Amino acid sequence: MKQYQQCLQHIIDHGQIVNDRTGVGTLSTFGYQMRYDLTEGFPIVTTKRVPMRLVVSELLWFLKGDTNIRYLLEHDNHIWDEWAFERYVNSSEYEGPDMKDFGLRALEDGAFHEVYQAEMNKFQQLILNEDAFAQKWGGLGPVYGKQWRAFEGIDAQGHRSVVDQIEQLLIRLRKQPHSRRHIISAWNPNQVDSMALPPCHTLFQFYVCDNKLSCQLYQRSVDSFLGLPFNIASYALLTHLIAREVGLEVGEFIHTSGDLHLYRNHLEQAQQLLEREPRSLPTLEIKGNRTIFELEPEDIQLIGYDPHPTIKAPIAV
What we know:
Elements: H1 2-14, E1 16-18, E2 26-37, H2 52-63, H3 70-74, H4 81-89, H5 102-108, H6 110-129, H7 131-137, H8 144-149, E3 151-154, E4 160-163, H9 165-175, E5 183-185, E6 201-209, E7 212-223, H10 227-246, E8 249-263, H11 267-274, E9 283-286, E10 300-303
Parallel strand pairs: 7-8
Antiparallel strand pairs: 1-2, 2-8, 3-4, 5-6, 6-7, 9-10
Helix pairs in contact: 1-11, 2-10, 5-6, 6-7
């Protein structure tokens, strides 16, 4: 995974200071590409631990077409909690302590951090245990799962149309593997403003050659320290799952970045990671015969993953 270290070094060497919506600020570059040969091992960062179980449960959540964090919480996955929580605490129904700018305040104020954690824990338990609350406040709007499995638009006759892009992709890969139209878009201009977070990984395309399936992702916005390792592992896994479903081998995963940035409060962590030596890549094992839509997190395992220890860094909401 030298490619990931080279990416971080590129941002440090060439990034420009840019203020962003979170108020944290970034070192930002535009346009960068990395390539991973999936036949050489599973491309997961080894210079810090990436929690693969979270990658797996999030991807399966997308593939189910789900947009409610209850499924994630049931699998002890909290990577989307802040966005659902933000919607709730900004609503007229929330009656607890002031949570304005909770992301930054929790980092800077220890006393507030305790109050925030208590409110977040209450919120999580309500999502898990109260159906009506979960239905109303666990949803994130029409984010990835909705766009992948039920993309809404207008057809050629002017009628409302709903397209299951994943199902359509599988059919086309089986019938026309060499088509240049194996494209899935998560960016729906009509619904972006209704999403808790507009899609960062916006569009991906598959390509078949020599019975091998390759995938290229275009990602409009890339948090290089926290988000990017997840994105690499997630789309490498997706390529394996799609290839398995349609009877192909795996080829390459290509990651193309738009705004590739390093948050300024992640600089110390990035430098720490750059001092570490990458380790051997693990291999992926997918157990059983369940279809791509039936898989459970326990069906997917990494064999031989031996990374350096976790490096913690604050999330910018």
